[in-house]
Amino acid sequence: MHPIPIAGPAVEPISVDEMRAFLRLNEAAEDELVATLIKTARHCVEAASGRVLIAQTWRLALDRWPHNGVVTLPLSPLIAVESVRVFEADGLPAIVSTAHYRVHPASDPPGIVVDAAALDPGRALQGIELDVRVGYGDDPDAVPAPLRQAIRMLAARWFEHRGDEPDDALPPPDILALIAPFRRARL
């Protein structure tokens, strides 16, 4: 199950004005670069934390329902399941009623428990599609402060050094320390 982005965030967790203040830039001459660094830092923090920061819609495709009836989502935190579709043999989608699944958004990772009465897909590959909305919310202030600070620090590091320092681990240890509490523990 490989997530496919459908709709990205409407805003970034850090605004260009906020980042410009953090960098102590008075002029807007480098706003395009600052915006790119914010977006890139968000992607890096999302990858390192295993969390989606600002609300986004993603599509997940499955070949069949899991044997245990639990679809474990690779994205979190889960805001909502927007739709579940099962494709028939002729390729037409059938919407799965919310009566046939339960959502467990608070579990980590979030899961969807599918009822045994849910339709089975009629096609062998990617017979099931789930559209989910994930993230901490639409408002940048909903993103936990340590993750927002990690974005600021990473974008500032890239802004200040612009490739003139040796390759270090991404993210660097001081930024990883901010991200660490949000990472999912692996056993």
Task: Provide a quick synopsis of the model.
With 187 residues, the chain is of the alpha+beta class. Helices cover 27% and strands 22% of the residues.
E-strand count: 8
CATH topology of the largest domain: Hypothetical protein yqbg
The main sheet orders its strands as: 1-2-8-4-5
CATH class of the largest domain: Mainly Alpha
| CATH architecture designation of the largest domain | Orthogonal Bundle
Count of DSSP helices? 4
Helix content: 25-40%
Label the overall shape: elongated
Contiguous uncertain segments of 5+ residues: none
Query: Helices and strands: which structural class?
Result: alpha+beta
CATH superfamily of the largest domain: Phage gp6-like head-tail connector protein
Sketch the major β-sheet. Answer: 5 strands, antiparallel
Distance between the termini: 21 Å
Task: Chart the SSEs and their pairings.
Blueprint: E1 4-7, H1 16-23, H2 31-49, E2 56-62, E3 70-72, E4 78-87, E5 93-95, E6 101-104, E7 111-114, E8 128-134, H3 145-161, H4 173-179
Antiparallel strand pairs: 1-2, 2-8, 3-7, 4-5, 4-8, 6-7
Account of the 3D structure:
The protein is α+β, with helices and mostly antiparallel strands and 187 residues long. It has 2 domains: 4-53 and 139-182, Hypothetical protein yqbg (Orthogonal Bundle); 56-134, no CATH class. Helices cover 27% and strands 22% of the residues. It is built from 4 helices and 8 strands; from the N terminus they run E-H-H-E-E-E-E-E-E-E-H-H. A hairpin with a 6-residue loop joins strand 6 (101-104) and strand 7 (111-114).
